[in-house]
From TrEMBL:
UniProt-recorded name of the protein: Class I SAM-dependent methyltransferase
Keywords assigned: Methyltransferase, S-adenosyl-L-methionine, Transferase
SUPFAM superfamilies according to UniProt: S-adenosyl-L-methionine-dependent methyltransferases
Molecular function (Gene Ontology), one example: methyltransferase activity
C-alpha cells in the first residue's frame, strides 16, 4: 500500500481499508468510495484503480479531501448526497463504503451501491451495528480489553470534523437484510465493532 505521509493514520475504520483493497478487482477501471470523509481510502484506491470518485455530503470533509489529494490524476471528490446524485448506473468495478451506511437508509443505500456496479463488479461495505442481545453485549465486552490495548499501541486518531452517529440496526438485522438484497453475499463480524458485507455482481 502506498503511504500518504502526514495524512496516513490508524483508527477502527482505517484498519479495514486493507479488506477493501484486497477485494478490488484486477484490473479496476473505476471505483467509487461512498462517504469518503477526508479521502484516505480513496487515495489508497487510486494507487490501484485508474479512476476513483469519493463522495461525501459533508462539504468540509470534501474540502479536506481535495486539499490532501495533491492533484492526483484520476481522483475526484464530490460534495453530494450519494442517494440523490446522478451517478451512472453500471459504471463501477468497485463500490465501497466504510463506517457510513448507518448514516443512511440501509436498504436504499445498499440497493443503490449494487445498481452502480458493472456486471462482475465488487461491492464491499464495512459498517457498524448496535448490540441488541445478551450475546452481542457479551462479545463486545470480551473484546474490549484487546481493543483498548490496540488503540494505545497503534495510536488511534480520528480526523477533525468527521460526522458521528450511533447505528440503529442490530447485527442480526443487518445480516438478514444484506443477504436478502444481495443473494450470495458474504457477511462477517469483525473486531473493533465492525462487520463487512462483500458481494460480486453476477
Amino acid at each position: 500500500m502506498t503511504r500518504t505521509g502526514d495524512h496516513d493514520y490508524w483508527n477502527h475504520n482505517t484498519h479495514y481499508h486493507r479488506l477493501v483493497l484486497d477485494a478490488m478487482p484486477d484490473p479496476c477501471e473505476a471505483a467509487l468510495d461512498v462517504g469518503c470523509g477526508e479521502g484516505l481510502l480513496a487515495r489508497r484506491l487510486a494507487t490501484r484503480a485508474r479512476r476513483v470518485t469519493g463522495v461525501d455530503r459533508s462539504a468540509e470533509m470534501i474540502r479536506q479531501a481535495r486539499g490532501r489529494a495533491g492533484g492526483s490524476g484520476g481522483l475526484e471528490f464530490l460534495a453530494a448526497d450519494f442517494l440523490r446524485h446522478p451517478f451512472p448506473e453500471g459504471a463501477y468495478d468497485l463500490v465501497c463504503s466504510v463506517a457510513v451506511i448507518h448514516h443512511m437508509d440501509f436498504t436504499a443505500a445498499l440497493t443503490r451501491m449494487a445498481d452502480l456496479l458493472r456486471p462482475g463488479g465488487t461491492l464491499v461495505v464495512v459498517g457498524l451495528a448496535r448490540d441488541r442481545t445478551p450475546l452481542d453485549r457479551a462479545f463486545s465486552g470480551a473484546v474490549l480489553p484487546a481493543i483498548m490495548i490496540a488503540d494505545r499501541v497503534r495510536g488511534k486518531a480520528d480526523p477533525a470534523g468527521m460526522p458521528m452517529t450511533e447505528p440503529e440496526m442490530s447485527w442480526g438485522r443487518v445480516r438478514r437484510e444484506a443477504l436478502r438484497l444481495l443473494p450470495g453475499a458474504r457477511f462477517r463480524r469483525h473486531l473493533y465493532w465492525r462487520y463487512s458485507v462483500r458481494w460480486r455482481k453476477p
